[in-house]
Amino acid sequence: MRTKNQVKMERKIHLVPLGNIKGWVLDTLDEQLEKTFNCKVEIHERMELPPEAYNKQRNQYFSSLILKKLHSFIKPGKQDKVLGIVDKDLYADGLNFVFGEAELRGSFAIISLARLRQSFYDLPEDETIFIERTVKEAVHELGHAYGLGHCPDPGCVMHFSNSLGDTDRKSMSFCSRCVQSLEKIIRQR
User: Fold this and answer.
1) Number of domains composing the chain
2) What is the 3-state secondary structure (H, E, C) of the chain?
3) 103 classed as catalytic
4) Dihedral pair phi/psi, residue 174, rounded to 5°
């Protein structure tokens, strides 16, 4: 039987900055994601945003195309997850914007920092609010990559965020039901 530490060592989350991401943001995510998912986190070298993902009419980047490009940049281990981090506004098919996107039960996820900043809404910056939002979105999208769906509990990090207010209301943690589901998923792999 494997111990908790052996399982931890087998799984890894790869953080991939796309474009210029501040080191303190990556370091904070490293620390928080290691605690939340009980696994090693590795920060990779910066990757350029694929220019073909940019939509000039929308002034946004197409998140699904960036996810596909991540596949060619890094080959994760069987139990690993990859989180791309961009500081540009993202959109997905049929949506005005997305805070992030993930392959459900896949290996890849992406988050955008752009709309998590107070300055996006012409408000004074607040580093505390920004990093809380960033951690929530990172945990949420990685939760999807592990196989979790949206949770009906508005306090759970897996609750759907239709607006920034939804993100601000939820916690950075999984509810007990999502914790049990995540533990079951990880044990099965």
Assistant:
1) 1
2) CCCHHHHHHHCEEEEEEECCCCHHHHHHHHHHHHHHHCCEEEECCCECCCHHHEECCCCEEEHHHHHHHHHHHCCCCCCCEEEEEECCCEECCCCCCECEEECCCCCEEEEECHHHCHHHHCCCCCHHHHHHHHHHHHHHHHHHHHCCCCCCCCCCCCCCCCCHHHHHHCCCCCCHHHHHHHHHHHHHC
3) no
4) -80, 145
Catalytic residue among 101, 103, 137, 141: 141
Cβ atoms 66, 110 nearer than 8 A: yes
Which two tokens mark 15? 């953080």
Q: Which domain holds residue 120?
A: 4-188
Residues near 29 by beta carbon (within 8 Å), at least 6 away in sequence:
15, 41, 83, 85, 134, 135, 138
- Which tens digits make up the pLDDT trace of 35-83? 999 999 999 999 999 999 999 999 999 999 999 999 887 787 778 999 9
Candidates 149, 145, 16, 34; CA nearest to 74 is 16
What pTM value is reported for the model?
Answer: 0.91
CATH code where residue 69 lies: 3.40.390.10
